[in-house]
Amino acid sequence: MIESMVDASNLAESIPELGHAAPRRYKGRHVDDLALLQGGEGAFVWARRRDTGDLWYLDEDTGKANRPFVREHLVCPVPGCAERLTSAHRSTKRDGLQHFSGGGGHSLESIFHSQGCALIESWLKKAYPDYRVRREEYTNEAGERRADVLITNRDGLKVAFEVQYSSITPDDWRARHESYRAQEILDVWLFGHTKNHLDLDTHTGRLKPNPTHQAVVATKSPLFFLNPEYEIVGFAVSEDYEYDAFTDRLTRDPVHVLDRPRDAALQVRPLGSFHVSRLEGFSSDLLRILHNSTTELRRFNWNQHFRAAELRSHWQILAEQKRL
Q: d(Cα 150, Cα 120) in Å, to the nearest integer?
């Protein structure tokens, strides 16, 4: 019998430290509070320096003090825009950046996507200062694929991060995934925290995965969601059970797995608790445990089903011999 490798209390532990954008009222809440992942005001807080192209972050309550600097040095980070920005101080909402009157016109989806990419780029550059990190980087000279954010280590290993807020069909996702794998690039997909992708059952609070999510999980990749404003990542965790060959039934003790997104619970962790992995591309200590428990359960159940087939054949032979 396999013991679940993940203690339920571990999955329900409080978030140790949220990103600096997270409001005080969320600190210390349990990670099963899905409102955390869906929360935020859609604040526009990332920009680029006009002179260097470096990312720049607007801290809370600094909109007024930073306004002269913002107007002189910063531009919009949305690819293809690069218009000048200003900053706003707000009494009831978070301070944020904004275009001058008549500029921008980006959809909220575009803003979320841009802010998510900026967050991932900034996180990677801080966590891996010796690696090459580029936004909107082509993966080869032929321009076959352009990653939202591409990180390359000293050995040439590449991991592509895709922040996906817009809709994408399963076929389109598979084409992009297979293109990355054909180039020996690990691709990590972080779906947006809006209802376009993060759809929950209103009664149970469990995930309602779409066909694209199912396609992702079919490749043995966890299903990730990103909230760029709070700098947190959610991933789908569900329960499955061991199969017993002798009783031909599932046991009662659950095992936590990553490959059954339907009716899964979303576990939330700060982005800083994850790391780039040579095996999965994007992982954490908890995810490694969950990967192992998922793999072990699938191997155990496959063996048990094989054993059950042998037992049924054996019993059938005995029954036929008895009739003779």
A: 10
pLDDT for 324: 64
**Look-up of token digits 């011999």:** 321
- Judged against a pLDDT cut of 50, whether residue 8 lies above it is answered with no
Of the candidates 167, 315, 199, 321, which has an alpha carbon nearest to the alpha carbon of residue 264? 199
Distances (CA, A) of 225 to 15, 68, 165, 315, 323: 16, 35, 10, 48, 60
List of residues 6+ apart from 25 with CB closer than 8 A: none
d(CA 293, CA 298): 9
In contact, 56 and 87? CB cutoff 8 Å: no
C-alpha of 22 from chain center: 18
Question: How far is it, in rounded angstroms, from Cα 264 to Cα 237?
Answer: 5
Side-chain-side CA neighbours of 56 within 13 Å: the count stands at 25
Distance of CA 136 to the CA centre of its chain: 19
Q: Are the C-beta atoms of residues 149 and 133 closer than 8 Å to each other?
A: yes
Relative to beta strand 46-49, strand 74-75 is antiparallel
- Region for residue 14 given its phi and psi (left: phi exceeds 0; alpha: psi -120 to 50; beta: otherwise): beta
What is the Cα–Cα distance from 166 to 191, expressed in whole angstroms?
Answer: 9
Q: What span, in angstroms and rounded, lies between the C-alpha atoms of 63 and 51?
A: 21
**No. of helices (H) and no. of strands (E), the chain:** 7, 15
Q: CB 210: neighbour CB atoms within 10 A?
A: 17
**pTM exceeds cut of 0.90:** no
Interval 49-60: pLDDT, tens: 999 999 999 999
pLDDT for residue 183? 94
DSSP-H helix ranges across 128-209:
170-182
